[in-house]
Prior knowledge:
Layout: H1 6-28, H2 36-49, H3 75-81, E1 90-92, E2 100-109, E3 112-122, H4 126-139, E4 144-145, E5 152-162, E6 165-176, E7 179-189, H5 198-221
Antiparallel strand pairs: 1-2, 2-3, 3-7, 4-5, 5-6, 6-7
Amino acid sequence: MRFLPLPIALTARLSPVVVLAAAGWALSSGPFAATPAAEGRTAQKAEEESPAAPATTAVSKTYPAAPAPCDSLGAKTVKSLVPGARTAGKEIPSTDSKLRRTCSWNALKGYDYRWLDVSFEITASDDAALTSFKERVAARSGGGDVPGIGDSGYSVVNLTTEDGQQTREGVVLVRASNALISVTYSGSDFESKKAPATAEINKGAIKAAKEAVAALEDGRQG
């Protein structure tokens, strides 16, 4: 076997090393080296092309909890709408008092009977409250809008007769941001068996609803 002279053999062995070293110099320091600006653009492009993590935005609720419903109406209002009733009212038990609360007042004075309920419900968002409000309005057709109360207001009055006794009931529904307020006001005269006039019941229910909305807003400010 013929051996190459040492200088040539050493040169052959070192050639790949020299080639790799030269290539490395060309990429790091030579004409093919990436400039800082190019590196920045590459990093920026990679960042832009990489899938972003899904953004999670917490829903901000204007009203986080329902106010005390029996404190939503003033004593003067209770006395005028439900003569003879205890102004403190009676809160109805709820499965979740933070989200749903109702207070009731009722009394029979002479032969006149009056019943008043005020309810608050807190929903997860304004959109949820709006959807629920529309569904409730659709279920109680025949009424009309109530301007100047919350974000949306609606009232309807109905007359029912049972065994010759009339009862007139007014319902006012209100949406204020993510909160829903419902007022039910009804009356009967057990002597004449007639019901109070539509205007009396409607005005009484709207009056109570306006005070309830004001109480809701006061609770948020407090």
